[in-house]
Design goal:
This protein folds into two domains: 2-161, Rossmann fold, CATH 3.40.50.2300; 188-467, Alpha-Beta Horseshoe (pyruvate-formate lyase- activating enzyme). The chain contains 18 helices and 19 strands. The protein has helices spanning 25-31, 52-63, 77-90, 101-105, 124-136, 213-217, 226-238, 255-267, 281-298, 312-318, 337-346, 364-377, 393-401, 426-442, 445-451, 453-467, 473-476, 482-496, and strands spanning 2-7, 20-21, 39-44, 67-71, 95-99, 117-119, 146-150, 158-161, 189-190, 193-198, 201-202, 222-223, 243-246, 274-279, 300-308, 325-328, 331-335, 350-356, 380-384. Strands 2-9-10-13-14-15-18-19 form an eight-stranded mixed sheet. A seven-stranded mixed sheet has the order 3-1-4-5-6-7-8, with helices on both faces. Strands 11-12 form a two-stranded antiparallel ribbon. The two termini are 27 Å apart.
Length: 500
């Protein structure tokens, strides 16, 4: 069969396509795990944000897929529905399967959508078995993790939800390497260098209130063998990647394993690549004296540090205190953030600071404290607002307190404030972040210039234009109220969401 797998064009504010265009690793993994006689194409629509309709039309006409699969996050749901209707208009008999975080956690919201199958949880084996069943013309009742429309004799299109599939343990080799040759589009970049994604593990055992991982797959941590990880790195390199983003949910759960991974990368001679990893502050703070130099030697350049918040009260709400606590001789010694940042900076690595502002108890002063921290200590701010994604503990808290002000899911992108605090409206929270964060991002230009001067020389105008969208010469000179510039930014951001 011909199969087309699509990721949505909707992007995060902190990852503008002018500087960052990451591939969807889940789709290439699915492509690598279907039976080899199928013709599979993967298209990341983030590469063609201004030409989505034309690109999808061309792909459907050229590939003539029998099955189309979509990977969807909550803020991409509206775009996905439009893509589905576009493909239906071009090929009415196509079968649609959707998967990813949003369909997995809110399957009831997809039952009225014009789709045929819904894959809950990890998709590699479920999708493989689905294609086998379609090809053989047999039923779907034995496929774990699958929901499907069953017209039955009445023809009313009821849904059947099969039992969940247990998370893959990964060490058994059942999940094969991704198939990067299946990509139908090109242009993945991170600050001028070709980028790709790899994973070395899946899962997390923490229960942060803002996160969907536990709801998605349960409380666990499974790992690939290093042979498999190194083969994945080599394959990404051979396909042109010079920067690799490790997309593990929480790679720092086993620090000794991560140290061994760094050693393996060095021993394999793969430390000439740049690596980008997500990390807990506590792991870096508690092991940084030996871990940070080792990471540097292995090629790690950027670390997304899950700071979450610098105030203990907010960390309690976010249920993130445990992973942000420094320890010495088995005793808690306070917040780990500054210690972790110091270790990383001393070893010439850069901190992408993950912070969350706009929690229920936040005041103007508490938000400003976090913004000031970001100004002083992080190299690239990744400041978000708490967002009530399906089935997260945070969502229930917000609903119980009546704090949700915005139900437009296309704006649930993390940088649009959709909930108020007990002291501030949502738009004021967002305005405070927007006003401060624009200038923080300019501080990283000299760092990027030293590493990739040609990219900075050729792309800085576009990057600044994106960062300061809505601003004008008058607002820059203080001759116009910043709130007018903010409202223009909001209108621009609204227009940008219309991809199809």
């Amino acid at each position: 069969m011909n199969v087309l797998l699509l990721s949505m064009p909707d992007s995060f504010e902190h990852m503008p396509s002018v500087g960052i265009r990451m591939p969807n690793g889940g789709l290439t993994s699915i492509a690598g795990n279907v039976d080899p006689h199928h013709q599979v194409a993967v298209a990341d629509l983030i590469l063609v944000q201004q030409h989505v309709r034309e690109t999808v039309t061309r792909l459907v006409r050229d590939l003539e897929p029998q099955v189309v699969g979509l990977s969807i996050m909550t803020f991409q749901r509206r775009t996905a529905e439009r893509v589905i209707e576009l493909v239906r208009s071009l090929k009415p008999d196509v079968k649609f399967a959707v998967g990813g975080y949003d369909p997995s956690l809110a399957p009831e919201d997809y039952q009225g959508m014009n789709i045929d199958y819904l894959i809950r949880g990890e998709g590699e084996v479920t999708f493989r078995e689905l294609l086998r069943a379609i090809e053989a013309g047999r039923g779907f009742e034995s496929i774990g993790g699958l929901s499907y429309r069953d017209d039955g004799e009445s023809g009313e299109g009821g849904w059947v939800h099969n039992p969940a599939r247990s998370p893959h343990r990964l060490e058994d080799g059942e999940v094969r390497l991704p198939k990067r040759d299946a990509r139908a589009l090109t242009g993945y970049t991170f600050l001028g260098r070709q980028v790709d994604v790899i994973e070395t593990s899946r899962g997390c055992t923490y229960d942060c209130s803002f996160c969907s991982i536990i709801e998605m797959r349960g409380r666990n941590f499974f790992t690939y063998s290093f042979d498999r990880v190194l083969a994945d790195i080599r394959d990404a390199r051979d396909h042109g990647a010079r920067t690799l983003f490790l997309v593990d949910d929480n790679i720092m759960l086993n620090v000794r394993r991560f140290e061994a991974l760094c050693e393996a990368i060095i021993a394999a001679g793969l430390n000439h690549l740049d690596y980008f990893v997500q990390a807990m502050t506590s792991s870096i703070a508690n092991h940084g004296e030996t871990l940070a130099p080792l990471m540097k030697r292995a090629g790690f350049r950027y670390v997304f540090l899950g700071i979450e918040n610098i105030l203990d009260s907010d960390l309690e709400f976010l249920r993130a205190a445990a992973k942000n606590t420094a320890r010495d001789n088995g005793q808690n010694t306070g917040n780990a953030t500054l210690k972790a940042i110091d270790y990383l900076h001393r070893n010439q690595m850069y901190v992408v600071g993950g912070l969350i502002v706009g929690n229920p108890g936040d005041t103007r002063e508490s938000i400003e404290a976090n913004l000031e921290f970001a100004r002083r200590y992080v190299d690239w701010p990744y400041i978000q607002h708490p967002t009530p994604y399906p089935r997260t503990p945070m969502t229930k808290d917000f609903r119980d307190q009546g704090l949700i002000q915005n139900e437009r899911l296309e704006e649930y992108d993390g940088t649009t404030a959709v909930v108020r605090t007990q002291h501030l409206p949502a738009e004021e929270v967002e305005f405070m972040r927007w006003k401060a964060e624009r200038w923080m991002k300019t501080h990283h230009i000299p760092v990027v210039f030293r590493h990739d001067p040609w990219f900075v020389l050729t792309h800085t105008p576009k990057m600044l234009a994106h960062t300061f969208r809505g601003s004008s010469i008058r607002s820059a000179l203080g001759l116009e109220d910043q709130r007018k510039a903010f409202q223009r930014y909001k209108e621009i951001r609204k227009a940008e969401r219309e991809y199809v």
